[in-house]
Amino acid sequence: MDARLYCCVDGGASNTRVALYDDTGHRIGLTVTGPTSLTVRGTEAWDEILAALETLSRAVSLDGEYLAHTHFGIGLAGANNNSQREKFLAAAPSAGALRVSTDAYIAALGAHGGTPGAVIIVGTGSVGYRIEAAGRCRLVGGWGFPIGDEGSGAWIGRQAVDQAARILDTRYRSSVTDLHRAIIERTGHSRDELLGWLLGAPPARFADLAPVVVEFAAAGDIAALDIVGEAGREIDALADALDPGRSVPLSLVGGLAEPLRPFLPERLQRWAREPREEPISGALMLAQGRAPEETIMWQGR
Amino acid sequence: MDARLYCCVDGGASNTRVALYDDTGHRIGLTVTGPTSLTVRGTEAWDEILAALETLSRAVSLDGEYLAHTHFGIGLAGANNNSQREKFLAAAPSAGALRVSTDAYIAALGAHGGTPGAVIIVGTGSVGYRIEAAGRCRLVGGWGFPIGDEGSGAWIGRQAVDQAARILDTRYRSSVTDLHRAIIERTGHSRDELLGWLLGAPPARFADLAPVVVEFAAAGDIAALDIVGEAGREIDALADALDPGRSVPLSLVGGLAEPLRPFLPERLQRWAREPREEPISGALMLAQGRAPEETIMWQGR
């Protein structure tokens, strides 16, 4: 088989979607694998991607030379860091073609079909991204844990654990709610258990708690409502910085976008619209050369 | 030389003071070395301690067998975690005697001569500690970066870097002050430089910026004043949880205690008093067996 293949990757800090398409754009298969955020995994992200591709290729009995025919379109969290992206490119296998961008760029391509528009990714981390014209982009947030990622899963989980810790050491007793009891159930009832949970905890471990917070917020828990309300205001601030005049369409993507929607400020709910397609479709545009390489307009000071 | 020696250690996340005393309690020497926080260094903390002891012993021409005569009194950040403390004890060299406690315990012993009293350590991290009666203690805070350490150097530095990042990505332009320009000078003017600075940054890297914030607060910078004011309220909350009735004496210790003093809430300034002696003197009490082993009263829920 000599026809071109497209391997499309949407990689985050908690998991990665890898899809394989044939040369007509028909999806051969899709698999979900571990994190490929460059900040979390570095060049080891390749192991994850190539293992997934191997699995997908086996399912359709491709020949052993498939890499030479494969055109990669890869969007990864952490690819906005030049040095991380260059190391990843240097570790690439020999393939048909390779295009690498941020996960935010492929999400924006997918959400707006390559036309000007903005996205905010709310997953383990958070970042705001706007395509201003073909290939010219604006990036807000995305600084990563622990300073940034406002409104993200890791950020929401950290607020909840912070409060749980204060309860365990007596600083927060008057405000204990069911949310806190549920968090302590997961992180440990004693100082030693919680310290063990915290030791070297990656952002994804905090993000694992975000669905718990959202669930309790939906049930009216006052502490949970406070946290998701604050997350909504942070996401609104990202949106504001992306497009103060609200002149382009905006979509929220990522695993927490839908669960958080009821808790976003009303003006943001009114502005946000469903993405046209998933980020992986943006990765296909990239792989097929239908999208220009990403050129981020770095904000001057 | 067969007489007993006392090796006293006050170990934090940024640096460590190691002092050697003879059997009459006379200080032979003191040296400052790298971090020995168990959370940061684990059992490698021993390398730091033993190298410092070797230096101190050479300065006074002790014989090669000095370890057998050495009684250790060691207070370390992170020793409140049972599993970390046990690993450290298991890696100990054969010595005359060995007593290990938290850095907070030796600070409280030093500050109040072993009598009931409270301390708050404000260094790279923060923790509140109270000796209620001989050997019975209460611990508040001390959860470590990134959830806790409120009011500490790492916490102060993180607030400043957080604001700088928001300025670089346009979210915070209206509130730029000289503090932010000074922080950006140190962390980098571009997204890539700041991302590089942030990548794997240990708490101490954030804490390095705290003196800059304090300096600008002293000069009236409004953003800096906001940050140190909030730090002061967090430290006051630790004090409140330690001793709601303000019934025992309280001392603030650690590298940021003195610089932050002018920015603490007034009622905390009135309550706080100078420590009687330094933490290293508390470590000597421990080494000499003049203090009971630390028994922390874990707060029930």
List the helices and strands and how they pair.
Two copies of one chain form a homodimer.
Chain A: E1 5-11, E2 16-21, E3 27-33, H1 38-41, H2 45-59, H3 66-69, E4 70-76, H4 82-90, E5 97-102, H5 103-112, E6 117-122, E7 126-133, E8 136-141, H6 153-168, H7 178-187, H8 191-198, H9 203-207, H10 210-218, H11 222-242, E9 250-253, H12 257-260, H13 266-271, H14 279-287, E10 295-296
Parallel strand pairs in A: 1-4, 4-5, 6-9, 8-10
Antiparallel strand pairs in A: 1-2, 2-3, 6-7, 7-8
Helix pairs in contact in A: 5-14, 6-7, 6-11, 10-11
Written account of the structure:
2 copies of one chain form a homodimer. Chain A is of the alpha/beta class. Chain A has 2 domains: 5-113 and 276-296, ATPase, nucleotide binding domain (Nucleotidyltransferase, domain 5, 2-Layer Sandwich), CATH 3.30.420.40; 143-274, Nucleotidyltransferase, domain 5. Chain A has helices at residues 38-41, 45-59, 66-69, 82-90, 103-112, 153-168, 178-187, 191-198, 203-207, 210-218, 222-242, 257-260, 266-271, 279-287, and strands spanning 5-11, 16-21, 27-33, 70-76, 97-102, 117-122, 126-133, 136-141, 250-253, 295-296. Chain A has a 5-stranded mixed β-sheet with strand order 3-2-1-4-5, sandwiched between helices. In chain A, strands 9-6-7-8-10 form a 5-stranded mixed β-sheet, with helices on both faces. In chain A, helix 5 crosses helix 14. In chain A, 53% of the residues are buried. Chains A and B meet through strand 8, helix 6, helix 8 and helix 11 of A and strand 8, helix 6, helix 8 and helix 11 of B.
